[in-house]
């Protein structure tokens, strides 16, 4: 990963994980699949963490 992205890459990856997680969560809810719902919630949490890392990198690079 480039040191010149100022956290942008992490923020984008975090948003993508959150969207993917939301889709899994909703699909699991619609199909009554608790395992898929849990996986979606975990992806959303992972995405929020990744986005926070990107925010921290952005703050530190200023």
UniProtKB/TrEMBL annotation:
Question: Known InterPro entries for this protein?
Answer: CsbD, YjbJ_sf
Q: Where is this region: Disordered?
A: 1-62
Gene3D superfamilies, alphabetized: YjbJ (1.10.1470.10)
List all Basic and acidic residues biased stretches: 40-62
Could you tell me which residue ranges the CsbD-like domain spans? Answer: 10-61
Membership in a protein family: Belongs to the UPF0337 (CsbD) family.
- What's the name of the protein? Uncharacterized protein YjbJ (UPF0337 family)
Organism lineage string: Bacteria, Bacillati, Bacillota, Bacilli, Bacillales
